[in-house]
Amino acid sequence: MKLSDYVVEFIKSNGVDKIFGYQGGAITHLVDSIYKAKDIEFISLFHEQSAAFAAEGYSRVGGNIGVAIATSGPGATNLITGIGSCFFDSIPCLFITGQVNTYEFRRRDNIRQEGFQETDIKKIVESITKYSVMVNDANDIKYHLEKAVHLAKTGRGGPVLVDIPMDLQRTEIDPDKLKGYFESNEYNEEIKGFEAYEDIDNVIELIKNSKRPVIHAGGGIRLANATKKLKELVEVTSIPVVTSLMGLDSIEHDHPKYAGYMGTYGTRYANLAVANCDLLIVLGARLTSRQTSPNVKSFAREAKIIHVDIDETELNLKFKEDISIKCDLKVFMNKLISKLKINNIHENYDEWMTKINSYKEQYPTYPTQKKENKIDPNEIMHLIGEMCGENTIFSLDIGQNQMWASQSISIKKNQRILNAGGMGPMGFSLPAAIGACYSDRNLKVVSIVGDGGFQMNIQELQTIVRDKLPIKIIVMNNHVLGMIRHFQELYFDSNYYGTIEGYDSPDFVKVCTAYGVDSHRITTLEELGKVNELLNDSDSHLIEVDLSNITYVIPKLEMGKPIEEQSPLVDREELSKNMIIDIYNKSQRMD
């Protein structure tokens, strides 16, 4: 059996039916094998970075590993941003790169290159993969593939890379004689069950003694396939839930206990809930400075903190937590729920929830009163969200568009939001939407992007047209790099270098029409009515929302302030009325 054929059959055996990539000299054997195989497709995009993002979208929506392939040299290095995105957001993806023939390898380390496009991608990506290897012996292919996929999907997920030289790809092998990873002494069983019952008792004791608890749900909930368990935990305990950016779709936003998205660009009402809580149960969130504020002493300062994460290195990272538990979230919640039910423990937090609901009423994320047909980005996002039904995937890019959508789209049952968190790469939305669409063609997929990010992978419009993908594209066009422009206004004396001065964008309606995408421009709120039909048909459309170039994401947490004091600042008397605990001492501020 040809080795490249074996690789494709191995990928198929893991339930993968799509491989994303871009053809190149060093992977021609692999691509040829994909085309000859049954029940698996090669999805050719127009840039390797797009292929990596598409594999990530495929993995996140389908719950299985995503796969992308690229040729040696520039093809492999073009994958790097997508590999990093998977690594920081814990997404299991297998990246396979072609390499020059083994007889073309550099013979000495002090030689830069011998083979054409020879590049040591293994070493380059070691810091952003769970496993990175170049196959030097054809008989080791089973071992490396099994180990790579196992590590990608075990524990805290992440990307892996297998680099295969061209001459090995075309080598004939006997699959029955190959030794695998699972047969080796190196293999260890996956993480076993949670046994720290004394910690469960301590958690329950803190819940019983709490008057104002909050569950903080992070991206780990979705990664652990634990959204149903989260909902059950909330229903058993009646504890309100806030989410991180990555955890936005871990619970429906119309749930009576949903208390908002918290953090730097989070909703003001969610941040007030966290600031005033007396117990914070953190489930699968990393507590980054975008959640806590760089001034960590101000964060949830009168609360006990319980932190549960599968990655032990994320525990006690910024401050000493009261209870830190390394565990799979689904296992933890299952045992906690069981013990709560056995002991018939159910607290009443109605007064606390009433307070949180008062925050929601005071600080909605979009205007509740019309402003002479003026377009408000948050209102547009809210209305677009309302137009989309169940089974809709919102794929967001990076920048102001991402925050407007995250703040104001109210997630319904069976809806998803794909946010790129740790890497934060512009150009993510469109190819990730393509991957999501290929994961399940019955889903509605909406790509929300800014004018800056749209231009970074705009070539994938051709993929959408070629493959007749019914992806809806919403371009929030403020004709500027809005997020950085705001930074320049705050911290650089409004010197708009590279955001207004030296930045430009084309007529997107003309560009998209040239690609063959039905295109529309919205300039007033009144025109938004025609979008409803476009969002719910079976075709692809571009909807450009034409905004002023002076746009803001508000509320926004500025450097050093506690999370409850986002800009624009509310009146101190109003803040004092909303605070159950004392306002943060000015002498302790970093600002």
Helix content estimate: 25-40%
Quaternary state of the chains = single chain
CATH class of the largest domain: Alpha Beta
Question: CATH topology of the largest domain, anyone?
Answer: Rossmann fold
Assign an overall shape: globular
Q: Which regions have little confidence, pLDDT < 50, spanning 5+ residues? A: none
**Count of alpha/pi helices:** 24
| Beta-strand segment tally | 18
| Portion in beta strands | 15-25%
- What is the H level of CATH, i.e. the homologous superfamily of the largest domain? Thiamin diphosphate (ThDP)-binding fold, Pyr/PP domains
Main sheet: strands, sense, barrel: 6 strands, parallel
> How is the largest sheet built, in terms of strand order?
2-1-3-4-6-5
What is the domain total for the residues? 3
> Pairing-aware structural class of the strands and helices?
alpha/beta
* Mean pLDDT across residues: 94
The name of the CATH architecture of the largest domain is 3-Layer(aba) Sandwich
Q: Give the termini distance in whole angstroms.
A: 65 Å
Tell me the radius of gyration: 25 Å
Cofactor: thiamine diphosphate; Mg(2+)
Pathway: Amino-acid biosynthesis; L-isoleucine biosynthesis; L-isoleucine from 2-oxobutanoate: step 1/4; Amino-acid biosynthesis; L-valine biosynthesis; L-valine from pyruvate: step 1/4
EC number: 2.2.1.6
Protein name: Acetolactate synthase
Offer a concise description of the structure.
The chain has 591 residues and is α/β, with parallel strands linked by helices.
Describe the protein's architecture and organization.
It is an enzyme of class 2 (transferase). The chain is an alpha/beta fold and 591 residues long. The protein folds into three domains: 175 residues, Rossmann fold (3-Layer(aba) Sandwich); 166 residues, TPP-binding domain (Rossmann fold), CATH 3.40.50.1220; 170 residues, Rossmann fold (3-Layer(aba) Sandwich). 36% of the residues lie in helices and 15% in strands. The protein contains 24 helices and 18 strands. Helix 7 links the parallel strand 5 and strand 6.
